[in-house]
UniProtKB/TrEMBL annotation, chain D:
UniProt family annotation: Belongs to the complex I subunit 4L family.
Pfam families in the record: Oxidored_q2 (PF00420)
Top-tier EC class: translocase
Catalyzed reactions per annotation: a quinone + NADH + 5 H(+)(in) = a quinol + NAD(+) + 4 H(+)(out)
Keyword field: Cell membrane, Membrane, NAD, Oxidoreductase, Quinone, Translocase, Transmembrane, Transmembrane helix, Transport
Annotated protein name in UniProt: NADH-quinone oxidoreductase subunit K
This protein's record includes keyword Cytoplasm: no
GO biological process: ATP synthesis coupled electron transport
Biological source species: Ruania alkalisoli
UniProt cross-references to InterPro entries, sorted A to Z: NADH_UbQ_OxRdtase_chain4L/K, NUOK/Mnh_C1-like
The keyword Membrane appears for this protein: yes
Length: 517, 323, 644, 99
């Protein structure tokens, strides 16, 4: 079976299919009624396709499923894809989350309140407009899926940049059109931050092209690796330009402030994809692009990044404690966790590197679950302020249970997804720098505080009589959460399959940093 | 290209005669007040340019210049000037702060820079078009146009058609009321007549200059009742104040008494009969030098007439023009 | 090697309660009808299996009693590779039996105790979850897996303390317990980091084998961090503050988790890590000092509390102080620490259940000043509680005598200043323990009733007293109490005579030669009994023979301090909570004003610049044209200027 | 007398046209200024064509003429329609660009 399966242009197909489906769903009016089931079917198909790649994947075999097509030879740009263990896992995470998000947002997309955006005609219950709006959302999610697959698969710097920027488009609309009351400024803030980072990165790409002399396929990552060897100044500048883009994306302190706003205003499904997968592009880029391309610069800058990462961990944790809005709280927990991921990347040990990689997956799962379940809650209660709720555990026990499990996974309770990665990062960091390890451990206490504070405020205490009749999770909602909860448990107890895939990649990247420093 | 082009003395003479004239003509753009004057003067510049083109071994362009610019473009300008009001003079006082200074500095800068560049640049020795124009200039140009440039040339065809259509669309005016045909016009006229009892509402206005003494177009006709009919003079002359009304003519026709009375004879507000429109007798004296004395005789009346005239004439003129 | 079919099934010990918990949690309301019995069955099955394994183990020669069952590869991450495996040896089996046996009894007790709670099924799910997690903790063969159980019991504890979380203060207590435990867990994590960095592994076998050759500094640091972890879990000074508040949970929870099992995990950790502590005498000493401090701390606090459960909690703290002290004394103390742990598990659980029975009969009243003379209405409770009371006092031949006395003896062993400090403290602690436990006992069961049967009481002085109808608890509650009381009476003697228990643990703790304490043993025993009797007598005189005021008297400075747990919360509040809250506040503010403000400042700066430039946009074509002309001129000038 | 004189003349005409656009408020006059600028450019093209002996310059000038013709048609139509709606052919009255 392998030959035909491997020979197919899998990755390009995984990008093309959802993109095509998105366009079709968006443009063909007759399909708009069926947009949600169709979107779900397409996303499941993509998931099946991604899973079908797994048997043909050889964990120790470097980049696989590679394809290379010439695109713009004049600037050395190509469409090249290929994945190693990290890419495979991230793609699987992305395509697994998409059907869940589509299912979770099944009825959540509604027409904007009256004059909100002028998209409603006269305000009467307009099923056609509603269908159109829902189709729009599904199309955006599918388009985003295509981008997510692409960004983790591309092996060409120019394509990477293009996808990196193109991803902003669906997200911008998902926030700006489908978000909460302050969606416009939030979406704009997200866009401006990301664009600023992207443009700095573009200047880096151009500088890189100039430094390496260009030529056909000059921007293939494989051709770029080692191209700047010995040219330390160039390495440093290009690395810094990439780093700014990735730091904004990964939200690191102090360029994190777009995330809480965006997460608070975006629909929960969007937040789940945004924080769960999209922001991982930042850390993914640090690993897959910065390390092979600028090893010497990374090795020299790494200590500062470690300090910054630790600041992120503690700062994000403290800020999370101080939040009153549950969505913003989750966003800040992510800032803290991204700090740990970045710490693991730049601390320079293999253990921490593996930890960071699996952290990206685990955090994707648990944060997505948190956002979705918090979304279910705010949708019921009509408010994201924690003070609006009290004693919800008695009212919506299942919802409370899922929130608690997701929260516990977030605070790295052993046996749930968060633990193994955090453990690996901490142990690996301590190995290289005891001080870094000890400071990072403070995040452990903070995480317990912010998650349990949130749980305490929302779910415990006397039952609020105004909200005592909210319905618990319905069948559809329960089934969307089941895969996430299962994933959290599996990643907690049997992370071995994932680790087996990631470890060779981590060895390789950690070795780059190790030999450079 | 070793062959050195030598400019003939004749060409030098031609240039030195034409160039100052052209600059002078162009300066009309800056200093003349009436658009018509400017247009004519620019047309002259363009003809001169055509001559220079011919001198520059570009006879085809020279001819095209005359046809396109002088013949078409500038005439189009003249038409539009007529449309928007040939009489409009423009005040040369500047309204934007600092604009004049910027213009002077920018203009002088441009002149200085272009002159500096072209005089200080080192050009290859001129070649001349002898060789290129071997098969006559139009043929040479045509080879290029229908050879290298055939695609752009075709594109210009599309461009011209698009421009023509665009002009149609831009100047098209949506009908706001029902279409007014002959029947409606007649009914309107009769309705006005029934209302005012004025004969001019139904009959067409007499032509100007019907007396034996002066037959010119600037002489208003007389009504049967003896008063002058201002409407008989064309609007253009009226607007420019060139209606003839010397004292003598006034005396002959016994208008003095009428002027003194100051009473308007016709109501002129009806838009339906613009062509037939008449004005007060007093108005005839407004700007004519010959009527100074008469005007002085009754300042109040003339003031009143002035205002009426000014108020009526300008919209009416416009309406008439557009039709 | 003999075949050990039951031992190989040790994973079932964990799996059975875990599966039961999963069924109860996932099944939801559908399992309400029979859920509690499933919980009981699961706990009992685990207990039976535990007994089976014990019997199997007893049939093996001593050297073969240690089994390491490999389950699966858990974290195969290159440099660090952790397998999930179970270590079945005498030490872990001791705990397994304590946990499953006491656990099963408390499950039975809870069936009746929680009968009227609509969430009883959930309660049993949590209890099962706890049992599973606790078994993971004691059966783990690596620190990493131990940590799973370590945090798992923390979670179960959190859920159970906050079981009645509709009361905000209970929810806060639950959170406090979890967070303070997390502070201890930091120690655990750092200890594992140290092991990984220096030894490269975190499983017991490798670490213990390598410990001998490892630098003492690292071992000391590791040991100190393990002590920190133990402090968090076992409510030792300075992380003791959560235990009192943890009494917010239902009483069976207090009995199982906060008396018998979970809080003793710290002792287990220290004893299990013996090879690490062997190389780190400083860490050992610190453990002993902490044990001694907590021992006194808990005892003093216990004397002043009027809440029956909080008194018991303080007592627990104090008793665990004994155990930590013993564990800190090194090999001579390990076995006694575990021994005391086991006997304490029985008698303290029994007393908690007794307290629960009292509360059950008294309408959930916990204030001992509202009790009194309950002996008549609650005969069984009185007897079982009395057995526990005598056991904790250390009256021979009750259990406590055998274990506590050994610790006191061990505290007097050694050289230099240590025996002269730890010994008297342990001795003094025994006296104070006798006082406050007797106070509790007398205030509850003896003296005059500070309640009345009915409203129309003849006695004028009864006017303000509350009406109560004390009654004995149902069979489901009394049977476990009786079983535990039997254990309190007999277990100590059974295991101590002939040093059965010490021998049993020898494969783990190693054989220790007998050391003589600095004071002769008979003298010590005599002194202990004397001081205990003195304490009990004072309590009897004050609380049984004379009237107990319903409202607490003002008391001395020490009493007032002890009532508020020696200002532990005030200190925590002042040192951590208030500054922490302030930092949070300031940072939250700074994030919006400074960090985000900077970003927004950039934005508004751009807007300002745009507005300023926008003034050029007059709308007049001629202005634009002039800008163009000037621009062209300038551009050409620049080009020319650079050319020149 | 050299061909440069033609270039100078072209420059002067161009500048006059440009200044016209800047100072004259009447849209028609300004438009004529634009035409003059185009013509000046044409003169330069033709001159250079002669200078280099290459007819391409003339061809370009020819295209300029054609495009200018189209431009005049559209421009004048715009002026007429503006005059019709705003009653003025003054450039300063058409300042809606500001908004």
């Amino acid at each position: 079976m392998t030959s035909i399966l491997v020979d197919l242009p899998w990755l390009s197909l995984l990008v093309a299919v959802p993109l095509l489906a998105a366009v079709v769903i968006w443009l063909v009016p007759g399909l708009q009624k069926l947009a949600r089931p169709l979107g779900l079917a397409v996303s499941l198909l993509v998931l099946a396709g991604a899973i079908a790649m797994v048997p043909g994947f050889d964990a120790g075999g470097g980049y696989q499923f590679t394809e290379t097509y010439s695109w713009i030879p004049a600037i050395g740009a190509s469409w090249a894809v290929g994945i190693n263990g990290l890419g495979l896992v991230m793609i699987l995470l992305a395509v697994a989350l998409v059907p869940i998000v589509i299912a979770a947002a099944w009825n959540e997309v509604r027409l904007p309140e009256a004059a909100g955006s002028g998209e409603t005609g006269s305000g009467e219950p307009d099923t056609k407009a509603l269908d159109r709006r829902r189709a729009g959302y599904v199309a955006l999610v599918l388009a985003l899926e295509a981008m997510m697959v692409a960004i983790f698969a591309v092996r060409d710097l120019f394509s990477f940049y293009v996808v990196f920027e193109a991803m902003l488009v669906p997200v911008y609309f998902m926030i700006g059109v489908f978000g909460g009351p302050n969606r416009r400024p939030a979406a704009l803030k997200f866009l401006l931050y990301s664009l600023a980072g992207g443009l700095v990165m573009l200047s880096g790409v151009i500088y890189l092209l100039v430094q390496t002399g260009g030529g056909e396929q000059a921007l293939l990552l494989d051709n770029l690796a080692g191209a700047l060897e010995g040219n330390y100044t160039a390495q440093l500048w290009v690395f810094l330009s990439f780093l700014i883009a990735f730091a904004i994306k990964a939200p690191m302190v102090p360029v994190h402030t777009w995330l809480p706003d965006a997460a608070a205003e975006a629909p929960p499904g969007t937040s789940a994809l945004l924080v769960g997968v999209l922001d991982k592009v930042g850390t993914f880029g640090m690993i897959a692009i910065c390390l092979p391309l600028f090893p010497e610069a990374v090795a020299n800058v790494a200590p500062y990044l470690v300090v910054l990462a630790i600041i992120s961990i503690i700062y994000g944790g403290i800020l999370a404690i101080g939040q009153k809005d549950v969505m913003r709280l989750i966003a800040f927990t992510s800032v803290s966790h991204f700090g740990l991921i970045v710490l693991g990347i730049f601390i320079g040990t293999q253990t921490a590197m593996v930890g960071s990689m699996i952290y990206m997956v685990a955090h994707g799962v648990s944060t997505a679950a948190l956002f979705l379940v918090a979304g279910f809650l705010t949708q019921r209660g009509g408010s994201a302020q924690m003070s609006s709720y009290s004693g919800m555990q008695r009212v919506v026990p299942v919802l409370a249970g899922v929130f608690l499990i997701s929260g516990l996974a977030t605070l790295a309770l052993p046996g749930l997804s968060g633990f193994v990665p955090e453990y690996l990062v901490l142990l690996g960091s301590f190995e290289a720098s005891p001080a870094a390890g000890v400071f990072a451990v403070i995040g452990v206490v903070l995480s317990a505080l912010y998650i349990l504070l949130a749980y305490q405020r929302v779910f415990t205490g006397p039952v609020d009589p105004d909200r005592s009749d909210l319905p618990d999770l319905g069948g559809r909602e329960r089934w969307t959460m089941v895969p996430l909860v299962l994933a959290m448990l599996v990643l907690g107890f049997f992370p071995a399959p994932v680790l087996d895939v990631l470890t060779p990649a981590a060895d390789q990247f950690a070795a780059i940093l190790g030999s450079a420093s | 290209m070793t062959e050195q082009l030598v400019l003939s003395t004749g060409e030098a003479v031609l240039f030195w005669v034409l160039a100052p004239l052209m600059v002078l003509g162009a300066l009309a753009l800056l200093f003349a007040r009436r658009p018509v004057h400017i247009a004519v003067s620019i047309a002259g510049v363009m003809v001169a340019l055509a001559v220079l083109y011919i001198a520059l071994e570009a006879p085809f362009l020279g001819v095209a210049q005359v046809v396109v610019y002088t013949g078409a473009v500038m005439m189009l300008f003249l038409f539009v000037i007529m449309l928007v009001g040939v009489d409009s003079t423009e005040s040369l006082t500047e309204t934007l702060a600092g604009q004049r200074w910027i213009a002077i500095v920018g203009g002088l800068g441009l002149v200085a820079l272009t002159i500096a560049i072209v005089t200080r640049a080192t050009f290859a020795s001129p070649v001349g078009l002898e060789a290129a124009n071997a098969d006559t200039n139009p043929v040479g140009v045509a080879r290029l146009i229908f050879g290298d440039y055939v695609f752009p040339f075709e594109l210009t065809a599309a461009l011209l058609i698009t421009a023509a259509l665009g002009a149609l669309v831009l100047s098209h005016r949506r009908r706001l009321g029902p279409k007014r045909g002959q029947r409606e016009t007649v009914e309107k006229k009769l309705a006005t007549f029934a209302e005012s009892g004025s004969a001019t509402a139904v009959v067409s206005a007499p032509g100007p200059g019907v007396y034996a003494r002066t037959n010119s177009a600037d002489m208003p006709a007389l009504a049967a009742s003896g008063e002058t009919l201002d409407a008989s003079v064309t609007t253009v002359l009226r607007v420019r104040g060139q209606v003839l009304r010397d004292e003598e003519a006034a005396a002959q026709t016994g208008r003095v008494a009428m002027i003194a009375s100051g009473a308007p004879v016709f109501d002129t507000t009806d838009e339906a009969q613009l062509e037939d429109e008449t004005s007060e007798i007093e108005a005839t004296a407004t700007e004519s030098e010959g009527a100074e004395g008469a005007e002085g005789a009754d300042p109040a009346g003339s003031d009143h007439a002035d205002r009426d005239d000014a108020g009526d004439s300008s919209p009416e003129t416009d309406e008439g023009d557009e039709r | 090697m003999q075949d050990t079919p039951l031992t190989n099934l040790a994973w079932l010990l964990i799996a059975i309660p875990l599966a039961s918990a999963a069924v109860l949690l996932v099944g939801g309301r559908r399992t309400n009808a029979w859920g509690h019995w499933l919980g009981v069955v699961a706990a009992a099955a685990a207990a039976l299996l535990g007994i089976g394994i014990l019997i199997e183990m007893l049939g093996l020669p001593e050297a073969e009693r240690i089994h390491d069952l490999h389950l699966f590869s858990w974290i195969p991450a290159g440099d660090l590779s952790v397998d999930a495996g179970l270590l079945v040896d005498p030490l872990s089996m001791t705990f397994v039996l304590l946990i499953t046996f006491v656990g099963a009894l408390i499950h039975v007790y809870s069936v009746a105790y929680m009968e009227h709670d609509e969430n009883r099924r959930r309660f049993f799910a949590y209890l099962n979850l706890f049992v599973a997690a606790m078994l993971v903790l004691v059966l783990a063969d690596s620190y990493a897996l131990l940590f799973v159980g370590w945090e798992g019991v923390g979670l179960a504890s959190y859920l159970l303390i906050g079981f009645w979380n509709q009361r905000t203060e209970y929810a806060v207590a639950a959170k406090k317990a979890f967070v303070m435990n997390r502070v201890g867990d930091m120690g655990m994590l750092i200890a594992m980091m140290l092991m990984f960095a220096s030894i490269g592994a975190v499983d017991f076998e490798t670490v213990f084998a390598a410990a001998e050759g490892t630098n003492e500094g690292i071992l000391t640091a590791t040991g100190l961090m393990l002590v920190l972890a133990a402090c968090g879990k076992s409510a030792q000074f300075p992380l003791q503050a959560w235990l009192g508040d943890a009494m917010a949970g239902p009483t069976p929870v207090s009995a199982l988790i906060h008396a018998a099992t979970m809080v003793t995990a710290g002792v287990y950790l220290i004893v299990r890590s013996a090879p690490v502590f062997e190389g780190a005498p400083t860490a050992q000493l610190v453990a002993a000092i902490i044990g001694a401090i907590t021992l006194l701390f808990g005892a003093i606090v216990g004397c002043a509390k009027d809440d029956i459960k909080k008194t018991l909690a303080a007592s627990t703290m104090s008793q665990i102080g004994y155990m930590v002290l013993a564990a800190g004394l090194g090999p001579i103390g390990y076995a006694f620490a575990i021994f005391h742990l086991v006997t304490h598990g029985f008698f303290k659980a029994g007393m908690f259940l007794g307290a629960g029975s009292v509360m059950h009969g008294m309408g959930d009243e916990v204030n001992m000043r509202r009790f009194g003379a309950l002996r008549r209405s609650m005969q069984i409770t009185w007897i079982t509680f009395g057995a526990g009371w005598l056991a904790i006092l250390g009256i021979p031949p009750f259990s406590g005598f055998w274990s506590k006395d050994k610790i006191i003896e061990a505290a007097f062993v050694g050289e230099g200043w240590q025996p002269w400090v730890f010994g008297p403290i342990a001795l003094l602690g025994a006296g104070i323990t006798a006082f406050y436990m007797s106070r509790l006992f007398f205030m509850t069961f003896h003296g005059k009733a500070r309640w009345k049967e009915s409203e129309d009481s003849a006695n004028e002085s009864d006017k303000d007293l509350p009406v109560q109808h004390p009654h004995e608890s149902p069979l489901l509650m009394t049977v476990p109490m009786i079983v535990l009381a039997v254990g309190s009476v007999a277990l100590g003697g059974l295991l101590a005579i002939g040093d059965t228990f010490t021998h049993w643990l020898e494969p783990v703790t190693g054989h220790v030669e007998h050391h003589d304490p600095v004071i002769a043993i008979p003298v010590l025993i005599g002194a202990t009994i004397a001081i205990v009797l003195a304490g009990a007598f004072i309590a009897w005189r004050q609380y049984a023979a004379s009237a107990v005021p319903v409202t607490p008297p003002e008391g001395s400075v020490l009493t007032r301090a002890a009532r508020v747990d020696l200002y532990q919360d005030a200190v925590n509040e002042a040192v951590f909570a208030t500054p922490g809250a302030r930092v949070t506040e300031v940072l939250t503010e700074a994030d919006t004003t400074v960090v985000d403000g900077a970003a927004r400042g950039l934005g508004s700066g751009a807007v300002g610049l745009g507005t300023w430039w926008g003034r050029l946009q007059t709308g007049f074509v001629r202005s634009y044209a002039s800008i163009m002309v000037v621009g062209v001129v300038l551009a050409v000038v620049v080009v020319l200027a650079t050319r020149v | 007398m050299t061909l440069v004189h033609y270039l100078v003349l072209s420059g002067i005409l161009f500048s006059i046209g440009a200044v016209t656009v800047l100072v004259r408020r009447n849209a028609l006059v300004a438009f004529m200024g634009v035409e003059l600028m185009l013509n000046a450019a044409n003169l330069m093209l033709v001159t250079f064509a002669r200078m280099h002996g290459d007819l391409h310059g003339q061809v370009i000038a020819f295209f300029v003429m054609v495009v200018a013709a189209a431009e005049v048609v559209i421009g004048l139509a715009i002026i007429v329609s503006i005059h019709r709606t705003r009653g003025s052919a003054s450039l300063d009255d058409a300042n809606l660009l500001k908004n």
